[in-house]
Write a structure and sequence with these properties.
mainly alpha, two-stranded antiparallel ribbon, globular
């Protein structure tokens, strides 16, 4: 009798409980922070609705995470070009709505056309999902490029840059046109971190760092000494006004510097243990999103803010630890980009609250309200859990 074909046994999945605890803790802190922001919301907004939606987004994120792990994260890498073009199409639709004809389910917010309404759930922001899609796509490109590379020349590196730019530049143009500069900066930094660990010649890293330092130094020099020249170069825009509010806060305390003044007052007056949950020291714009850290610090003080920073730091270190122990190159490139994004978003968001960085619309990952930012990191987290499972399995056996 012919032998029955046996299906290959599935590889056992080993959950990383430390990673689960850290992400769960951040979810609880997020709900606490959002709940604390409810008295500060603008008139007419339903705070209870905001909490329910955030809980719903967390549940959807968990379902997505489990589903991707069960289906296999390799599908993310093999189907990423399809995902990219779907997201690209959504970005084009947003541009059509902004500059041509009004489309259903699309409405600008504060002059930015970046969100698509999902009835009953809220809104999604395609650019948030594009940032992770580009990282996965670039991880594929870098991995394939390195597999076929036989030399390590500047020419080879330029070919790699061109392959990446072919997909990244059109997407960034569409996002900047919304207009949105926060997410393009996050994407650019994430990809630069990936390239830095991809095996390119170290001279690129040195000269890029030197160029960045010189550009920032020149910008600040012109800002403080030749303001008219700087305005002629970059134009008088809201981005320049944010610099006025950052570097000359007291001079523009009733206009461009108001948001920074409000956050400094909220954080600076909170003391060791804060004013208590749902305290109202001063009104803040977008307390549930951009200024969620100021709300949390106001409610829970130095101790609470330090605990939140500690959990985020432990998550970052855990992600780096998993990536260093994992052997696969393609996944390492992706996680390098993800950790670059996370570190920048964390530093930028919390830094702007205490005046270290200019005010931007960059949210605090896993803490700020909203589904797009949370769900966009789920594919990367699924890859991370599978990487961790692989590390645990090899360590066990």
């Amino acid at each position: 009798m012919p032998k029955k074909l046996q299906r290959p046994s599935k590889i056992a999945f080993h959950p990383d409980y430390i990673l689960i605890i850290l992400l769960s803790t951040l979810s609880v802190l997020s709900l606490l922070a959002i709940y604390g922001s409810l008295p500060l919301l603008s008139t007419g907004r339903s705070g209870f609705d905001l909490i329910i939606k955030q809980i719903l987004w967390i549940i959807i994120a968990i379902i997505m995470l489990v589903g991707l792990i069960i289906l296999g994260v390799d599908r993310l890498f093999t189907s990423i070009k399809i995902i990219y073009w779907v997201l690209f199409g959504l970005l084009v639709l947003l541009l059509v709505d902004k500059y041509m004809i009004d489309l259903p389910l699309i409405s600008p917010v504060n002059g930015t056309t970046a969100w698509i309404t999902l009835p009953g759930l809220g809104t999604i922001q395609p650019s948030e999902f594009m940032k992770i899609a580009l990282l996965i796509l670039c991880a594929n490109i870098i991995h394939e490029h390195n597999q076929s590379k036989v030399t390590a020349t500047f020419t080879d590196d330029i070919k790699l840059f061109a392959k990446i730019a072919l997909y990244v530049v059109p997407a960034l143009i569409l996002i900047v046109a919304q207009p949105d500069t926060g997410i393009p900066i996050i994407i650019a930094l994430g990809i630069l971190v990936m390239l830095a660990v991809s095996g390119i010649r170290k001279e690129w890293i040195f000269y890029s760092g030197l160029f960045l330092i010189m550009s920032v130094s020149l910008f600040l020099f012109l800002f403080f000494n030749f303001e008219a020249v700087l305005i002629n170069i970059v134009g008088a825009s809201y981005r320049l006004n944010r610099l006025y509010g950052w570097l000359h806060t007291e001079q523009y305390i009733s206009s461009y510097g108001l948001q920074l003044y409000q956050s400094l007052l909220a954080v600076g007056s909170s003391g060791l243990f804060g004013h208590g949950l749902q305290s109202v020291v001063i009104n803040m714009i977008e307390p549930q999103n951009d200024f969620i850290f100021a709300v949390f610090a106001q409610d829970f003080g130095f101790i609470g803010a330090s605990f939140l920073i500690l959990i985020q730091l432990l998550l970052d270190l855990k992600i780096i630890s998993i990536a260093m122990k994992f052997k696969g190159r393609r996944e390492k490139y992706l996680i390098a980009g993800v950790i670059g994004m996370l570190l920048f978003q964390q530093f930028q968001n919390m830094g702007m609250i205490i005046g270290l960085m200019p005010i931007t619309g960059i949210t605090l990952p896993f803490i700020s309200a909203g589904g797009s930012s949370l769900l966009s990191y789920v594919p990367a987290l699924a890859v991370l859990f599978v990487m961790s499972s692989n590390v645990i399995r090899k360590r066990t056996f």
